[in-house]
C1q domain-containing protein
Amino acid sequence: MTACTARKDYGSKSSGYVVKFADVSTSSNINNLSTFRNSGKFEVEVEGMYLISAWIFTSVTSHFSIRKNRETIATGYMSASAGSNAAATAVVAIDLKRNDEIWVQTEKSFFIHSTPRASCLTLIKVK
């Protein structure tokens, strides 16, 4: 699955915000997409090894985490200088069990840019 932030989810986000990736462009064999779009939390339906990547485009210093059941499993950090734009990125491979929840959460307040398809989450079941 690959999903990106939708227009309604751009803007300033406070620390602890669960990032919503409602613009799903690719998915296969996922039954709970509507719940994911609304909550920002992906519930694992099929256990296995997953590759998870998230990137968030911003013009300010940003810090976010990929979470599994409230535990941080990867972090993304980007330190911006005035007038620059860049994406903070995090990638992790992890074994997931049925009903585990995966989400992206801000660790500090920052602005998510409105550039289409520039802030996204990808989950791939590899085994």
